[in-house]
Amino acid sequence: MHQDKKQLEVLLLEYFRESYFDFPKGIVAPSESPDFIVSFKNHHLLGIELTRLNPWNLATQTPEQVAETVSRVNIIELTREIFEKNLPHRLFVKFLFSDKIKIDESREMISAIKFSSIIRERVKNLNYKTFFSISLSQPELPEELESILILNHPELKTSVWERSNNLGVSTNVVEDIRTAIHKKDEKIGLYQKQRLNYYWLLIFTDRLRGIRNYNLAEKVRNHRFESRFQHVFLFDLVKSDIYELI
User: Fold this and answer.
1) Phi and psi angles of residue 203, each rounded to the nearest 5 degrees, phi first
2) Is 234:53 a contact under the CB 8 Å cutoff?
3) Is the pTM of this model over 0.70?
4) CA neighbours within 13 Å on the CB side: how many for 219?
5) Hey, which residues does 162 pair with through a beta bridge?
6) CA distance 165 to 186
7) What is the enclosing helix (H) or strand (E) of 58?
8) What Å distances lie between residue 184 and 5, 49, 226, CA to CA?
């Protein structure tokens, strides 16, 4: 379990490095408390801690939404099984389903075959010994899907195929971010035992969304967050958007 978690962290940090133009040049090494240490030519050290944005203010699902979630999880698992019968590669894949188009239970297998074919065609000629990221969105996807994020890293040995925001949707995203920062701030004394020069916190989320999405990104950008870390980032994986909170 710990090994799987570290493999996933390596993949996500590499995705962040690719997406963040100002990521400093240095040698990145996996660590513990913090998760990574970046070494620079001037002998300075940067510690980076990763954490997932949990929906602490979780919205309650209706019975219909619960049933739809079960169906979508089943479709994704079928898609993964079909894909891995043809290609042995282990991928990180996130599916963002449309809120407008529903998939009937009788069409789950057909949808899975279709989704698997789309992913296979996009990755079959790529080099799996290197990191790559692919973001698919409308109109190149079936109407049942808004987007698919595909990540590959040679370190990843266990597949991760999930719904976007599979932990649920929050009623107060800004407060969730504050909670995530506070929980890591409480541990910064542990990180400082490494005697590093700088400390960053990277909070990642599948897709920045809440019950009320109106101006949500703007609210996050404009909110004044506080932390003992020198920099705190919020990373929207599906859109590859980075919010520099501190």
Assistant:
1) -100, 125
2) yes
3) yes
4) 15
5) 94
6) 26
7) none
8) 17, 8, 12
Q: Which tens digit of pLDDT belongs to each residue from 24-50?
A: 999 999 999 999 999 999 999 999 999
Query: Tens digit of pLDDT for each residue in 211-240?
Result: 555 578 888 988 999 999 999 999 999 999
Residue 238: Cβ within 10 Å count? 21
Q: Which amino acid is it at 35? A: D
Q: What CA–CA distance (Å, rounded) separates 95 from 73?
A: 10
Beta-carbon count within 10 A of 198 CB: 15
The Cα 146–Cα 158 span in angstroms is: 25
Instruction: Point out which residues pair with 135 in neighbouring strands.
Output: 149
The domain limits of the chain are: 2-57+170-244, 63-163
In order of 94, 148, 180, 232, the CA distances from 13 in angstroms are 16, 19, 18, 14
Residue 37 · residue 49 · CB < 8 Å: no
State which amino acid sits at residue 243.
Answer: Y
In three-state secondary structure terms, 91 is coil
